[in-house]
UniProtKB/TrEMBL annotation:
The protein's required cofactors: FAD; [2Fe-2S] cluster
PANTHER family, alphabetized: NADH OXIDOREDUCTASE HCR (PTHR47354)
Keyword Flavoprotein found: yes
Record-given protein name: Hybrid-cluster NAD(P)-dependent oxidoreductase
Organism this protein belongs to: Fulvimarina endophytica
Domain of life: Bacteria
GO molecular function, a single term: 2 iron, 2 sulfur cluster binding
Annotated Pfam families: FAD_binding_6, Fer2, NAD_binding_1
Keyword tRNA processing among record annotations: no
Length: 368
């Protein structure tokens, strides 16, 4: 019978589960080149422990670069069926501080702090048994974790896996996907390239994914669950294409790597805030010690949004208490924080807060 993996891959008895509250530091065991600008980093816990997660989830890592603490999310590209290590697969982003540091400086034996696996972008718990994965660039990672998991469990999961790359030299996991497809015929990878690479003429589908190509590669796509991850314009184009082709969008799932989709929520907050100013709500003073600025924050506005409106740059990513990017030290004052797992209890006890999901209950002093 076609069965997707269980919601949480159980850790075998006799093994210890990795407990990020107790030991949140991981050691890099190996670094592998995937393409000219993509590397995989394989991590293990410091003590004998096994990871427990669902394929498609991500972790937030903490980096100390140039005297600054920076957080970035990375999808776990390895499957839960290989629980002794986790892998992340990182594409170099031109000018990006973290991806370039990982590629140029980070090596086997070095350590990183990280959070518990998070995220909902997974087929785990689905009752469907036919899938269409569509990825662009580094957006391949969650699909790869799901496909590796299906392969390890010898599932007959019927996976059509379309990956779009610029050239054949940019196809991530090409050999491994072809190998899995050759050994398990229910895994069907198809690559689409925009152009040839320097040393290889691309004989397969060319250009961008459009409805004509989709109908050719996967004529029964309307009867599948579709999972999409890639650059924002790519995801937008795919969404419009399948919606326009009459796909039932309740079976359509997507993951964004830059949380662009959440800016709409931030926008709504700005509208809310404008309304707030017209109603008699309490307004608190928020002092940012590093920038030396004090701003006003109405009681129903997040501190992050108040900072943004005043032109103070606080690093943020998801704007929903998930990724930990906006984590800051609160020197004094009280907050009402409703996070979604991006901060640990011991950090809250130590006076830290996620400014994207925290509203003031008093005047505040924040180390930013
Ligand atoms: C849930 C989640 C999962 C993620 N998983 C992965 C993953 O598996 N592999 C991976 O390589 N990255 C992944 N990312 C992106 C990653 O967190 C970083 O944003 C990325 O590595 C760039 O970091 P940076 O500090 O070098 O550049 P940043 O300062 O973060 O980004 C510089 C600029 O590049 C854009 N950008 C960010 N990521 C990309 C990208 N992948 N392609 C093109 N433009 C980009 C940003 O929007 C920004 O404009 C994920 C992000 C999220 C939110
Ligand atoms: S921006 Fe992601 S937790 Fe605040």
């Amino acid at each position: 019978m076609d069965m997707p993996e269980p919601k949480i891959a159980p850790v075998p008895t006799g093994y210890y589960r990795w407990e990020p509250e107790e030991d949140d530091v991981l050691i890099c065991r190996a670094v592998r080149n995937e393409t000219h600008d993509v590397k995989t980093f394989i991590f293990a816990p410091r003590f004998k422990r096994q990871f427990e997660f669902v394929s498609g989830q991500f972790m937030t890592f903490e980096f100390e670069i140039g005297g600054e603490t920076i957080h970035r999310c990375y999808t776990i590209s390895s499957p839960p069926s290989r629980p002794d290590t986790i892998s992340i697969t990182v594409k170099r982003v031109p000018g990006g501080p973290v991806s370039n540091w990982l590629h140029d400086e980070f090596q086997e034996g070095m350590m990183l702090r990280c959070t518990v696996p998070m995220g909902e972008f997974s087929w785990a718990g689905e009752t469907q048994s036919k899938y269409l994965f569509i990825s662009g660039g580094s957006g391949i990672t969650p699909m790869m974790a799901m496909t590796r998991s299906a392969f390890d469990h010898a599932l007959i999961a019927d996976i059509e896996f379309i990956h779009a790359a610029r050239t054949p030299a940019d196809i991530i996991f090409r050999e491994e996907l072809e190998f899995m497809g050759a050994r398990n015929h229910s895994i069907k990878p198809t690559f689409i390239c925009e152009d040839d690479s320097k040393f290889e003429r691309w004989p397969g589908y060319r250009g961008r994914l459009d409805i004509a190509k989709l109908e050719m590669i996967c004529p029964d796509f309307r009867s599948r669950s579709i999972y999409v991850c890639g650059p924002a314009p790519f995801m937008k184009a795919v969404r419009q294409m399948v919606k326009g082709a009459g796909f039932e969008m309740s079976r359509y799932f997507e993951e964004s790597f830059n949380f662009d989709s959440f800016t709409e929520e931030a926008q709504e907050q700005i509208v809310e805030a404008t309304e707030v100013i017209e109603t008699p709500l309490k307004v608190y003073q928020v002092e940012f010690t590093k920038t030396g600025r004090t701003v006003e924050c109405p009681e129903n506005l997040t501190v992050l949004e108040a900072a943004r409106r005043a032109g103070i740059r606080v690093p943020s990513s998801c704007s929903k208490g998930l990724c930990g990017t906006c984590k800051s030290q609160v020197k004094s004052g009280e907050l009402d924080m409703k996070h979604s797992g991006g901060i640990r209890q011991r950090e809250i006890d130590a006076g830290k807060a996620l400014l994207c999901c925290a509203k003031p209950l008093s005047d505040l002093v924040i180390e930013r």
